[in-house]
């Protein structure tokens, strides 16, 4: 599978996608227009081993709801991601059985290097 979950209104996501090599054949899914399904989230979880790794603690709602002071379980992370697109750390790039989550420079570099060798 070759897929990128992103927000088309996010300049960072657009910049990262533009920087990726060899993206022909990738499916782009704007998670605001087409929310992720339980099955898709479970596929991402199978590759990361953790819903927390897929969860964005930088989301505006995370701060607004005072979630940093809460003790969240893996199931909580899963439910929040399914509840609102903003809780998914973006972009999520899946190429074959490799997954790259979020926009940290280290992660983006790793995705670029991996895709360069595809």
Automatic annotation (TrEMBL):
Transmembrane segments annotated in the record for this chain: none
Domain of life: Bacteria
Pfam families for this protein: ArsC (PF03960)
Family of the protein in this entry: Belongs to the ArsC family.
PANTHER family: ARSENATE REDUCTASE, PROTEIN YFFB
Name this polypeptide is given: Arsenate reductase
Top-level taxonomy: Bacteria, Pseudomonadati, Bacteroidota, Flavobacteriia, Flavobacteriales
